[in-house]
Structures are given as C-alpha cells and as structure tokens.
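Q: What changes when NAP is included in the input?
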Amino acid sequence: MRRALITGITGQDGSYLAELLLEKGYEVHGLVRRSSSFNRGRIDPLWFAPGGDRLHLHYGDMTDGVSLVNLVHSVRPDEVYNLAAQSHVKVSFEMPEYTASADAVGTIRLLEAIRTAGLTDCRFYQASTSEMFGATPPPQDERTTFHPRSPYGAAKLFAHWTTVNYREAYGLYAVSGILFNHESPRRGETFVTRKVTRGVAHIKAGLTDRLVLGNLDAVRDWGYAKEYVEGMWRMLQQDSPDDYVLATGVGTTVRDFVRMSFECVGLDWEQYVDHDSRYERPTEVDALIGDASKAERELGWRAETKVEGLAQLMVEADLAATAQG
Ligand SMILES: NC(=O)c1ccc[n+]([C@@H]2O[C@H](COP(=O)([O-])OP(=O)(O)OC[C@H]3O[C@@H](n4cnc5c(N)ncnc54)[C@H](OP(=O)(O)O)[C@@H]3O)[C@@H](O)[C@H]2O)c1
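A: The predicted holo structure follows.
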C-alpha cells in the first residue's frame, strides 16, 4: 500500500487531496497544528468515508524542524505533498517573518527531513503559486520570469527554487506545481472569492446588505480546487520529475466574479458592494492568467470547471450553509 504524507491536510487543497488519495487506496498521514479551537472541519467527514481507517493525523508545525524530522522518519512516506503554508497574501505583509519561516524555510526543513531519513525513492510535491510571477504580465507558464510582489510570493519562490535544487543536487523526485488560483466551497472565508460568495448568500438571506472589498480591477485565473489536486497527484506519477503550471487560461476581474456571483441569486451587485482601500496591498499583482498547455500535453490534465460554474457552485454551497445557520 502506498503511503502519503500531506502537510496542510486541514486546508482547502489538503482536504480534497486526502479524499482523492484515500479513494485511490493510499495510507494517508497528515500533519496538523495544535489549536485551541477546532480546525479539522474540512477533513472530519473523511473518518466516516470509505478508507477512513487509513487516515492518520500527527501534530507538528512547519516552523518546528524536529517535529518534521520525527514525523518523516517514523512514517517513511512514498509521497510527500507539501501544502502547508501561511497562504494569505495580505496577511504576509503583516507577518513577513513568520510567512518566510513557514513557507520558505519550512520547505527546506521538510526536504532535509526526507534527505536525512535516506528516503531516496520518496516523491515530493511543492505547492508553488502563480503569485511568484507577480508583476510579470500574462500569459504565464513554466518559462516565465518570476517577480513576486509580496512576502508570500517571495517565500514561495524560495521554496520553489529549493525544490528544484534538491532535484538537481540529490536526485530527489521533487516537483513544483505552479498553481493559479483555485477555489471551492472549502476556500477560507477571508479569500476574495469565498468572501464574495458568502457575502452574496448573507445578503440574499437578509443578514446584511453590504459587502466591502478591496481592488476590483485585479485579474485572476480561477479554477476549481477539486480538479487541481488530481493534477498534483499526476505530477508525482511521471517517469521523471518536472515542474508544471495548472490554470484555466481564462482571466476574470474581481468585479466580474462579483457580478457573476450576485447574478446567481438575481441581484445587482452595484447595489451592495462598497470599496475600502484598507483591503488593498502595498504592492498589487495586476493580472495572473496561466498557460497550462504543458500539463495538458504531459499529464493529460485540463481544468474543466469554468469561472461561471465555479461562482455558481460556491454560491449554492454558501446559500445552503447559510440556510442551515
Ligand atoms: N488555493 C490557491 O489558490 C493556491 C494557489 C497556489 C498555491 N497555493 C498553495 O497551496 C497550498 C494549499 O492551499 P490552500 O488553499 O489549501 O491553503 P489553506 O486553505 O490556507 O491551507 C493551508 C494549510 O496549511 C496549514 N498550515 C499553515 N501554517 C502552518 C504551519 N506553520 N505548520 C503546519 N501547517 C500549517 C493550515 O493549517 P490550519 O488549518 O491549522 O490553519 C492549513 O492546513 C498552500 O501552500 C498555498 O500557499 C494555493
């Protein structure tokens, strides 16, 4: 039985990936952080799903190298998916040092744990991001110059190059998946898409009549997270390791995503949305639109869900959640 270790298993992507790997018959180990409040809502249903007895959780932290060494040495995984991160761009401006420790140095801690455990056949996936392209105009692919515009983007770029270096220096099967934005009903509530779809549901239910947002002009390439974790898995099943962009190839402004989401419930967004510059970042990323043709050619992966469908499924999930209270 193949054994996978997922850091960030409690997050959006970690929960979908754990589901996928359990379905594929893997033994799945997840790194979880100790928290004074409940932080496992996304993976709780997995205990009762088929294969739930193959799920194992372990306490640890990307900023605590000893916990990572102990975990990797005891689990001895065949595949490691490094999804743990302080993943919020705006927060990274407020906590740059922590973001660098968790996202950049944390990746080195994990790679060193794999190397020192002598796991020469272990396959490693690094959750890289389109934020590494930052100021470089679209379309962006694997050959595009990086120019990050946030501590988050810079930390992820360090982790990206570290992953490439461990592949070249030690022959580790290490890949960097450069993923453009991907969303779902499980997206954290402070990320713009989810903030919008949850706001729409609350407005429709009469709980509020305002939605306050930052930069409406930013262009992003939004896909469906459930499809993107399949791409992560495929990256680790190739004959040789390489880096891949996953994206839909379609750019949409935040304004248009807002409009689509309000249209799902028959409302005019302009009646409800306010702008507040406090939600903007010191350096904005204007446009991210990915070219995933290499992933389509070599992995047979393609984003199926278009942005309108994504807005629809997220709004519907938030309407249902709001109705349940
Ligand atoms: N979603 C996207 O559009 C996107 C695009 C490109 C790249 N990425 C990257 O892909 C990965 C997964 O994204 P996501 O959307 O699933 O993010 P997410 O929902 O924010 O999940 C982040 C996960 O990392 C964990 N974590 C944070 N800091 C940690 C630390 N110091 N030690 C251990 N665990 C820690 C979180 O644990 P808690 O639950 O305890 O907070 C959570 O499980 C992230 O690395 C993100 O940067 C995401």
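Observations recorded in class: The longest strand covers residues 123-129.
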